[in-house]
Amino acid sequence: MAGGAAALIFGTGSIWFILRRKRKKANQVDGNIFDGEFQNGMGPRKFSLAQIAKVTTNFKGEKLGVGGFGAVFRGYLRDLDTDVAVKRISKASKQGIKEYASEVKIISRLRHKNLVKLIGKSLLNWDVRFKIVHGLASALFYLHEEGDHCILHRDIKASNIMLDSGFNAKLGDFGLARLVDHAKGSQTTHLAGTMGYMAPECVLSGKASKEADVYSFGVVALEIACGRRSIEPTYEESRASLVAWVWDLFGNRQLLGAADPKLSIDFDAKEMECLLIVGLWCVHPDPKSRPSIRKTIQVLNFEAPLPKLPSARPTPTYGVPVGCGIQASDPCFSTPTITIPR
């Protein structure tokens, strides 16, 4: 867990510095943004800009990605001998300090081997891919079922999953996450998420739920199995939508034709079939027909039978309201138009 904790505290370090810089302009926000957690020693550790700049080569080293808050850089924490991910807020950030603080406060509560970002690079073989799906499912089960509160992630997508040196999946980016009571399991809030991964009912209602997280998990599972993104506008129309394409292959009894061609035939056919069917189950248009993450894990472990799915993808009955602007791979907040991701 050293790497996970380090990734968190360095992300927090950049937040703390930015809050200090903005104190003169927004003291009323800075004063209570972490509810005194820094002051009483219960929250994440503070780092100076000089310390953070040192481990990231003054933010000129490897850039791991760019999100709604800004860029994420790779760093190295010498005293723990571990790589870390450092998130830095940009001036053009589409999200605010409160959302960033929410991410830090939620991550501070978490202790699980498959949570918080790390990095790994390679063309992944089948065993590693199946392991990643299991790791992501385990992380989601912890968020939904094992804590004092249910945590709805609300932005599960491929770019929020990174790998450590052992190819263990790490789910990160909790900027949109919400705490809810286990008995409730959902929360009505402003629309947030990433197109291509958002459950259809969320686009209509903005309601965050376990079922919506499961839908996003299903999209990622299909991406891992098929080796392509959820939306590919350059593909022919019948293949542009990953979910629709895989469901068509399933209905035509050609499901294994969805397998990533880069794998050639070097995969376990039973596991591939299982993953593809579980992915379709999770992205069922009707949230009541989706499995819980607990049931998903049981099927992935071959502890429960595969579900029986309709041969044709059920038609979604949810409309898309005017008033949500979404860019490819960016979090969604209410603005005038909808844009299909790249």
From TrEMBL:
InterPro entries xref list: Kinase-like_dom_sf, L-type_Lectin-RKs, Prot_kinase_dom, Protein_kinase_ATP_BS, Ser-Thr/Tyr_kinase_cat_dom, Ser/Thr_kinase_AS
Keyword Nucleotide-binding: yes
Name used for this protein in its record: Protein kinase domain-containing protein
Family: Belongs to the protein kinase superfamily.
Residues holding ATP: K87
Domain Protein kinase, residue spans: 58-309
Keywords recorded for this protein, A-Z: ATP-binding, Kinase, Nucleotide-binding, Serine/threonine-protein kinase, Transferase
Gene3D superfamilies for the chain: Phosphorylase Kinase, domain 1 (3.30.200.20), Transferase(Phosphotransferase) domain 1 (1.10.510.10)
